């Protein structure tokens, strides 16, 4: 079975242009880039003294934190569903 073709798109994040490549749709990749850009700008607006690297790290930390919370919530809901089935 052949690998799905990868899409490429140029995106702007916090004033820098990046080339993204992935199996997701171009629209999805643009949405991801837009959300990252929005998060970085929000963090920057709250503390103007942060450099780009610190803003990027804080954005990554917030994103991973949100991801972990969602995974925990999914596990809770799966457990509740299994109890209801059982």
UniProtKB/TrEMBL annotation:
Sections of the chain in a coiled coil: none
UniProt KW Cell division keyword: yes
Principal subcellular localization: cytoplasm
Cellular localization per UniProt: Cytoplasm
Xref: Gene3D superfamilies: 6.10.250.790
Family matches, as Pfam families: ZapA
Keywords per UniProt: Cell cycle, Cell division, Cytoplasm, Septation
InterPro entries for the chain: Bac_CellDiv_Activator (IPR053712), Cell_div_ZapA-like (IPR007838), Cell_div_ZapA-like_sf (IPR036192)
A cellular-component GO term for this protein: cell septum
GO terms of biological process kind: division septum assembly; FtsZ-dependent cytokinesis; septin ring assembly
Job of this protein: Activator of cell division through the inhibition of FtsZ GTPase activity, therefore promoting FtsZ assembly into bundles of protofilaments necessary for the formation of the division Z ring. It is recruited early at mid-cell but it is not essential for cell division.
Quaternary state and interactors: Homodimer. Interacts with FtsZ.
Protein name (Swiss-Prot/TrEMBL): Cell division protein ZapA
Organism: Bhargavaea cecembensis DSE10
């Amino acid at each position: 079975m052949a690998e799905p073709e990868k899409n490429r798109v140029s995106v702007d994040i916090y004033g820098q242009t990046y080339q993204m490549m992935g199996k997701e749709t171009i629209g999805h990749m643009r949405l991801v880039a837009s959300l990252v850009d929005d998060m970085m700008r929000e963090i920057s607006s709250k503390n103007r003294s942060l450099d780009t690297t610190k803003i990027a790290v804080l954005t990554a930390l917030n994103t991973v934190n949100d991801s972990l919370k969602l995974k925990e919530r999914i596990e809770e809901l799966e457990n509740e569903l299994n109890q209801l089935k059982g």
